[in-house]
Amino acid sequence: MYRWWVFVHLIGVFAFLATHGVSMGVLFRLRGERDPHRINELLQLSSSSIQAFYVALGVLLLGGITAGFLGHWWSQAWIWVAIGFLVVVTMAMYAMARPYYQRVGFVARAMAGGSQAVSEEQLEEILRGPRPLVVAGIGIAGLVAILYLMMFKPSFGASSGTSAVPSAPSATVEVTAKNIKFDRTTLQALANQAITIVFHNADPGILHNVAIYSDSSAKQSLFVGSTFNGPKTETYHVPALSPGTFYFRCDVHHQMNGTFVVVAGSPSPGG
Protein backbone atom coordinates (compact mmCIF):
# COMPACT_ATOMS: atom_id res chain seq x y z
CA MET A 1 0.00 0.00 0.00
CA TYR A 2 2.88 2.37 0.67
CA ARG A 3 3.89 2.43 -3.01
CA TRP A 4 0.31 3.04 -4.12
CA TRP A 5 -0.01 6.04 -1.82
CA VAL A 6 3.32 7.38 -3.06
CA PHE A 7 1.88 6.96 -6.58
CA VAL A 8 -1.22 8.95 -5.56
CA HIS A 9 1.04 11.61 -4.06
CA LEU A 10 3.05 11.89 -7.29
CA ILE A 11 -0.14 12.19 -9.35
CA GLY A 12 -1.12 15.07 -7.09
CA VAL A 13 2.33 16.64 -7.52
CA PHE A 14 2.14 16.51 -11.33
CA ALA A 15 -1.43 17.83 -11.36
CA PHE A 16 -0.44 20.58 -8.92
CA LEU A 17 2.45 21.63 -11.17
CA ALA A 18 0.26 21.50 -14.29
CA THR A 19 -2.52 23.66 -12.85
CA HIS A 20 -0.06 25.99 -11.17
CA GLY A 21 1.77 26.22 -14.49
CA VAL A 22 -1.35 27.73 -16.06
CA SER A 23 -1.27 30.62 -13.61
CA MET A 24 2.47 31.05 -14.02
CA GLY A 25 2.11 31.03 -17.80
CA VAL A 26 -0.55 33.72 -17.60
CA LEU A 27 1.66 35.71 -15.25
CA PHE A 28 4.43 35.90 -17.86
CA ARG A 29 2.09 36.23 -20.85
CA LEU A 30 0.56 39.33 -19.29
CA ARG A 31 3.93 41.08 -19.37
CA GLY A 32 3.81 41.17 -23.17
CA GLU A 33 0.08 41.80 -23.62
CA ARG A 34 -1.43 45.29 -24.02
CA ASP A 35 -4.92 44.57 -25.38
CA PRO A 36 -7.36 45.00 -22.43
CA HIS A 37 -9.80 42.45 -23.86
CA ARG A 38 -7.06 39.87 -24.27
CA ILE A 39 -5.78 40.60 -20.76
CA ASN A 40 -9.25 39.90 -19.34
CA GLU A 41 -9.36 36.59 -21.23
CA LEU A 42 -6.00 35.57 -19.80
CA LEU A 43 -7.15 36.44 -16.29
CA GLN A 44 -10.27 34.31 -16.78
CA LEU A 45 -8.09 31.43 -17.94
CA SER A 46 -5.99 31.70 -14.81
CA SER A 47 -9.10 31.88 -12.63
CA SER A 48 -10.61 28.79 -14.28
CA SER A 49 -7.59 26.71 -13.23
CA ILE A 50 -8.01 27.52 -9.52
CA GLN A 51 -10.57 24.79 -8.81
CA ALA A 52 -8.37 22.13 -10.42
CA PHE A 53 -5.41 23.56 -8.51
CA TYR A 54 -7.09 22.99 -5.14
CA VAL A 55 -8.20 19.47 -6.14
CA ALA A 56 -4.59 18.65 -7.10
CA LEU A 57 -3.34 20.12 -3.82
CA GLY A 58 -5.81 17.93 -1.93
CA VAL A 59 -4.67 14.78 -3.76
CA LEU A 60 -1.03 15.75 -3.14
CA LEU A 61 -1.63 16.18 0.59
CA LEU A 62 -3.79 13.06 0.94
CA GLY A 63 -1.21 10.85 -0.77
CA GLY A 64 1.72 12.44 1.04
CA ILE A 65 0.19 12.29 4.52
CA THR A 66 -0.95 8.68 4.12
CA ALA A 67 2.42 7.62 2.69
CA GLY A 68 4.07 9.45 5.58
CA PHE A 69 2.23 7.28 8.09
CA LEU A 70 2.79 4.04 6.19
CA GLY A 71 6.46 4.84 5.63
CA HIS A 72 7.03 6.12 9.19
CA TRP A 73 8.28 9.46 7.86
CA TRP A 74 6.80 11.63 10.62
CA SER A 75 9.73 11.00 12.94
CA GLN A 76 12.05 12.48 10.29
CA ALA A 77 12.91 16.20 10.38
CA TRP A 78 12.92 16.63 6.59
CA ILE A 79 9.18 16.02 6.12
CA TRP A 80 8.27 18.76 8.61
CA VAL A 81 10.68 21.17 6.93
CA ALA A 82 9.17 20.28 3.53
CA ILE A 83 5.64 20.95 4.82
CA GLY A 84 6.85 24.24 6.25
CA PHE A 85 8.32 25.21 2.88
CA LEU A 86 5.08 24.27 1.11
CA VAL A 87 2.96 26.38 3.46
CA VAL A 88 5.28 29.41 3.45
CA VAL A 89 5.84 29.38 -0.33
CA THR A 90 2.13 28.93 -1.09
CA MET A 91 1.16 31.79 1.24
CA ALA A 92 3.92 34.07 -0.09
CA MET A 93 2.96 33.47 -3.72
CA TYR A 94 -0.73 33.97 -2.95
CA ALA A 95 -0.04 37.18 -1.03
CA MET A 96 1.99 38.62 -3.92
CA ALA A 97 0.11 37.28 -6.96
CA ARG A 98 -3.48 37.95 -5.89
CA PRO A 99 -3.17 41.77 -5.50
CA TYR A 100 -1.26 41.87 -8.79
CA TYR A 101 -4.00 40.00 -10.66
CA GLN A 102 -6.69 42.16 -9.04
CA ARG A 103 -4.95 45.39 -10.02
CA VAL A 104 -4.31 44.26 -13.59
CA GLY A 105 -7.92 43.07 -13.90
CA PHE A 106 -9.31 46.34 -12.54
CA VAL A 107 -7.29 48.46 -14.98
CA ALA A 108 -7.95 46.17 -17.97
CA ARG A 109 -11.71 46.10 -17.36
CA ALA A 110 -11.79 49.87 -16.99
CA MET A 111 -9.91 50.36 -20.27
CA ALA A 112 -12.05 47.76 -22.06
CA GLY A 113 -15.14 49.66 -20.89
CA GLY A 114 -13.85 52.91 -22.36
CA SER A 115 -12.85 54.55 -19.08
CA GLN A 116 -10.44 57.47 -19.32
CA ALA A 117 -9.51 57.23 -15.61
CA VAL A 118 -6.56 54.97 -16.45
CA SER A 119 -4.03 55.25 -19.22
CA GLU A 120 -2.04 52.82 -21.31
CA GLU A 121 1.08 54.09 -19.54
CA GLN A 122 -0.34 53.02 -16.17
CA LEU A 123 -1.18 49.58 -17.53
CA GLU A 124 2.31 49.33 -19.00
CA GLU A 125 3.88 50.23 -15.66
CA ILE A 126 1.90 47.53 -13.84
CA LEU A 127 2.53 44.82 -16.39
CA ARG A 128 6.25 45.49 -16.68
CA GLY A 129 6.78 45.61 -12.93
CA PRO A 130 9.04 43.09 -11.16
CA ARG A 131 6.30 41.32 -9.18
CA PRO A 132 5.76 38.42 -11.66
CA LEU A 133 9.50 37.67 -11.58
CA VAL A 134 9.53 37.70 -7.77
CA VAL A 135 6.51 35.36 -7.61
CA ALA A 136 8.13 32.98 -10.10
CA GLY A 137 11.42 33.10 -8.20
CA ILE A 138 9.71 32.20 -4.91
CA GLY A 139 7.88 29.31 -6.58
CA ILE A 140 10.97 27.86 -8.27
CA ALA A 141 13.12 28.19 -5.14
CA GLY A 142 10.43 26.50 -3.05
CA LEU A 143 10.01 23.67 -5.55
CA VAL A 144 13.77 23.03 -5.68
CA ALA A 145 14.00 23.04 -1.87
CA ILE A 146 11.11 20.58 -1.48
CA LEU A 147 12.49 18.25 -4.16
CA TYR A 148 15.87 18.30 -2.41
CA LEU A 149 14.25 17.38 0.90
CA MET A 150 12.26 14.55 -0.71
CA MET A 151 15.26 13.11 -2.53
CA PHE A 152 18.02 13.40 0.10
CA LYS A 153 15.98 13.42 3.33
CA PRO A 154 18.58 15.28 5.46
CA SER A 155 18.42 14.74 9.20
CA PHE A 156 19.30 18.37 10.15
CA GLY A 157 21.30 17.03 13.05
CA ALA A 158 18.29 15.35 14.65
CA SER A 159 18.97 12.19 16.58
CA SER A 160 18.54 9.11 14.45
CA GLY A 161 17.40 6.98 17.37
CA THR A 162 19.92 4.30 16.49
CA SER A 163 22.51 2.71 18.74
CA ALA A 164 26.18 3.54 18.31
CA VAL A 165 27.18 0.57 20.48
CA PRO A 166 28.62 -2.10 18.18
CA SER A 167 27.90 -5.77 18.53
CA ALA A 168 30.83 -8.00 19.45
CA PRO A 169 32.96 -9.06 16.46
CA SER A 170 31.53 -12.22 14.94
CA ALA A 171 31.25 -14.12 11.69
CA THR A 172 27.52 -13.43 11.85
CA VAL A 173 26.20 -9.87 12.01
CA GLU A 174 22.56 -8.96 12.63
CA VAL A 175 20.96 -5.61 11.83
CA THR A 176 17.39 -4.32 11.59
CA ALA A 177 15.84 -1.54 9.52
CA LYS A 178 12.79 0.08 11.11
CA ASN A 179 11.21 3.50 10.62
CA ILE A 180 13.77 4.19 7.87
CA LYS A 181 16.67 3.69 10.32
CA PHE A 182 19.18 0.97 11.07
CA ASP A 183 19.10 -0.12 14.68
CA ARG A 184 22.91 0.18 14.83
CA THR A 185 25.36 2.64 13.36
CA THR A 186 28.38 0.42 13.99
CA LEU A 187 28.71 -3.23 12.98
CA GLN A 188 31.68 -5.47 13.71
CA ALA A 189 32.74 -8.67 11.96
CA LEU A 190 35.76 -10.96 11.95
CA ALA A 191 38.36 -10.64 9.21
CA ASN A 192 39.59 -13.21 6.72
CA GLN A 193 36.51 -15.40 6.85
CA ALA A 194 33.10 -15.36 5.19
CA ILE A 195 30.64 -13.03 6.92
CA THR A 196 26.92 -13.66 7.30
CA ILE A 197 24.62 -10.65 7.62
CA VAL A 198 21.12 -11.39 8.89
CA PHE A 199 19.12 -8.36 7.77
CA HIS A 200 15.61 -7.72 9.11
CA ASN A 201 13.59 -5.22 7.08
CA ALA A 202 10.77 -4.28 9.46
CA ASP A 203 9.36 -1.46 7.31
CA PRO A 204 6.18 -2.70 5.54
CA GLY A 205 6.24 -2.08 1.80
CA ILE A 206 9.52 -0.16 1.89
CA LEU A 207 12.64 -1.19 0.00
CA HIS A 208 15.90 -1.58 1.94
CA ASN A 209 19.20 -3.37 1.61
CA VAL A 210 22.65 -3.48 3.19
CA ALA A 211 25.68 -2.58 1.10
CA ILE A 212 29.31 -2.30 2.19
CA TYR A 213 31.72 0.21 0.63
CA SER A 214 35.37 1.04 1.15
CA ASP A 215 34.44 4.53 2.40
CA SER A 216 31.58 7.02 2.55
CA SER A 217 32.04 8.09 -1.07
CA ALA A 218 30.45 4.72 -1.96
CA LYS A 219 32.52 4.54 -5.13
CA GLN A 220 34.07 1.14 -4.43
CA SER A 221 31.62 -1.54 -3.36
CA LEU A 222 32.79 -4.50 -1.31
CA PHE A 223 29.37 -6.11 -1.11
CA VAL A 224 25.89 -5.08 -2.27
CA GLY A 225 22.97 -7.01 -0.82
CA SER A 226 19.72 -7.47 -2.72
CA THR A 227 16.99 -4.91 -2.15
CA PHE A 228 13.61 -6.12 -0.87
CA ASN A 229 10.37 -4.93 0.68
CA GLY A 230 9.58 -5.43 4.35
CA PRO A 231 8.53 -7.00 6.54
CA LYS A 232 11.00 -9.71 5.62
CA THR A 233 14.37 -11.11 6.67
CA GLU A 234 17.19 -11.93 4.25
CA THR A 235 20.55 -13.53 4.92
CA TYR A 236 23.48 -12.08 3.03
CA HIS A 237 26.72 -13.97 2.49
CA VAL A 238 29.66 -11.58 2.34
CA PRO A 239 33.07 -12.75 1.08
CA ALA A 240 35.95 -12.54 3.57
CA LEU A 241 37.25 -9.03 4.16
CA SER A 242 40.65 -7.85 5.37
CA PRO A 243 40.84 -5.96 8.67
CA GLY A 244 39.78 -2.36 8.31
CA THR A 245 37.05 0.23 8.81
CA PHE A 246 34.47 0.43 6.06
CA TYR A 247 31.13 2.08 5.35
CA PHE A 248 27.70 0.49 5.12
CA ARG A 249 24.41 1.95 4.01
CA CYS A 250 21.00 1.29 2.49
CA ASP A 251 21.28 2.03 -1.22
CA VAL A 252 17.67 3.25 -1.34
CA HIS A 253 17.84 5.58 1.68
CA HIS A 254 21.36 6.98 1.91
CA GLN A 255 20.69 8.59 5.28
CA MET A 256 20.66 5.04 6.66
CA ASN A 257 24.38 4.39 7.08
CA GLY A 258 27.11 3.53 9.53
CA THR A 259 30.57 2.10 10.11
CA PHE A 260 31.42 -1.52 9.32
CA VAL A 261 34.48 -2.57 11.31
CA VAL A 262 36.33 -5.74 10.38
CA VAL A 263 38.75 -6.93 13.05
CA ALA A 264 41.33 -9.68 13.13
CA GLY A 265 40.04 -12.70 15.02
CA SER A 266 41.62 -15.68 16.66
CA PRO A 267 42.90 -18.31 14.22
CA SER A 268 40.46 -21.11 13.61
CA PRO A 269 41.35 -24.52 15.11
CA GLY A 270 43.98 -26.23 13.01
CA GLY A 271 44.66 -22.98 11.15
What does this molecule look like?
The chain has 271 residues and is an alpha+beta fold. The protein has 2 domains: 2-152; 172-263, Immunoglobulin-like (Sandwich), CATH 2.60.40.420. Helix content is 48%, strand content 18%. It is built from 6 helices and 10 strands, in the order ααααααββββββββββ. The protein is elongated. The chain starts with a helix and ends in an 8-residue tail after the last strand.
What's the order of the H and E elements?
HHHHHHEEEEEEEEEE
Poorly predicted spans: 267-271
Counted by DSSP, the helix tally is: 6
Helicity range: 40-55%
Strand fraction band?
Answer: 15-25%
Strand order of the largest sheet: 2-10-9-5-6
Structural class: alpha+beta
Rg, please?
27 Å
Biggest sheet: strands, sense, closure? 5 strands, mixed
User: How many beta-strand segments?
Assistant: 10
Short key terms for the protein model shown above:
Immunoglobulin-like; 5-stranded mixed β-sheet; 6 helices; elongated; disordered C terminus; alpha+beta
Give a topology summary.
Layout: H1 2-31, H2 36-48, H3 50-70, H4 77-112, H5 120-127, H6 131-152, E1 172-177, E2 186-190, E3 195-201, E4 207-208, E5 211-213, E6 221-224, E7 228-229, E8 232-238, E9 244-249, E10 257-263
Parallel strand pairs: 1-3, 2-10
Antiparallel strand pairs: 3-8, 4-7, 5-6, 5-9, 9-10
Summarize the structure.
The protein has 271 residues and is an alpha+beta fold. 48% of the residues lie in helices and 18% in strands.
